[in-house]
Design brief:
Helix content: 40-55%
Strand content: 5-15%
Largest sheet: 8 strands, mixed
Number of helices: 11
Radius of gyration: 24 Å
Shape: elongated
Strand order of the largest sheet: 3-4-6-5-7-8-9-10
Distance between the termini: 105 Å
Oligomer: single chain
């Protein structure tokens, strides 16, 4: 039997080294590519583009739209107001005041009855204050002075970005301060839908508002969770892209996206709070909504809208919405008793 050299039975060290270098380069390229795509997607989803043409971020997304999202070429149109309270036969005045980062905010103020509370209304993601006109009419019919507020970046307010509730909490606080300046003795009721509700919870956590009551329509529990659910709705794998997008979105706009957790903020709420949620809301998820309700503890009242998806329950189930909201306010605000 011929002798064999042991060195010949093993792959040459130089070849192994080249193989490892190849895989390291491949992994490095993949790491850069995935993070680069997440960076561009985060910028797309947090930066509004004035006069952008559709298609924009929507469900369902085509393969081409998904590609454009991660190439950073898909536009998120800046929300604008197409209607005013006058279109609902409501008298109003337009107000301007400083909000987050000193940006000028715009609000519509609809007069109410003397001695009644002030209701401040805040829209959701990609929404401006004209999306709240139906709600404004409901609060106005209760006699409330009603404010519809544009967050920075949308409608008549300055800016072009959204932090999905983080800096919007400062806008909530600014609107409450302005309302308190104009109506110093009036209790305040804060209403928000989706992002607006999450921003209200953060303002409560920061102790920058002192509302008499909250009405919250489907706030998300955690930013990373809601980003993941949106990706799933788009037909895009949530992990790890949702985590990367949360990181890069926060890095671009100067906040910690992983710390944006309304479910934890809810523990700091100390006023009566009505939480509205649909059992088919895939953007929040019923278990996550119940977690927020549990965090609210004895301060919270949970109202489930069966068969309903995400937000705008006044138009989806008007009788239940009115019964729930009016009953809650009458029970918790002396002005309505």
């Amino acid at each position: 039997m011929p002798d064999t050299d042991p060195a010949l039975s093993r792959p040459p060290r130089r070849a192994l080294r080249r193989l490892w270098i190849f895989f390291a380069i491949l992994m490095g390229i993949g790491f850069v590519a995935v993070n680069g795509a997440a960076y561009l997607a985060a910028r797309t989803m947090t930066h509004y583009v004035p006069n952008a043409e559709r298609p924009h971020i929507h469900v369902p997304m085509t393969a081409w739209d998904k590609t454009r999202l991660f190439l950073g070429t898909l536009s998120l149109p800046r929300p604008v107001n197409h209607l005013t309270p006058a279109d609902r036969r409501l008298a109003f005045e337009t107000l301007h005041f400083r909000g987050s980062h000193g940006l000028q905010l715009e609000a519509w103020r609809i007069p109410g009855q003397e001695g009644q509370p002030v209701a401040l209304l805040f829209p959701g993601y990609c929404g401006s204050k004209d999306s709240l006109l139906g709600y404004a009419r409901e609060f106005h019919q209760l006699g409330y002075e009603t404010w519809l507020v544009d967050f920075h970046g949308v409608g008549g307010s300055q800016g072009h970005t959204t932090t999905i509730g983080w800096d919007e909490a400062d806008d909530v606080a600014a609107a409450c301060r302005e309302a308190a300046r104009m109506r110093p003795c009036a209790p305040q009721v804060l209403f928000g839908t989706s992002l607006g509700a999450a921003a209200i919870l953060r303002a409560e956590h920061l102790h920058t508002v002192q509302p008499a009551a909250l009405v919250l329509e489907c706030p998300y529990d955690r930013l990373v969770t809601t980003v993941g659910k949106r990706f799933s709705a788009f037909g895009i794998p949530a992990f790890p892209l949702a985590n990367l997008l949360t990181f890069w979105g926060g890095a671009q706009l100067g906040f910690d996206g992983f710390a944006m957790n309304p479910v934890e903020y809810a523990r700091d709420v100390r006023c009566p709070t009505l939480l509205l949620e649909g059992d088919r809301d895939v953007r929040v998820g019923l278990p996550n909504a119940r977690a927020i309700a549990e965090a609210l503890g004895t301060h919270g009242t949970f109202e489930l809208f069966k068969g309903q998806a995400h937000a705008f329950y006044l138009s989806r189930a008007p009788e239940q919405w009115r019964h729930s909201v009016q009953g809650f306010l009458a029970a918790n605000l002396p002005a309505l008793r």
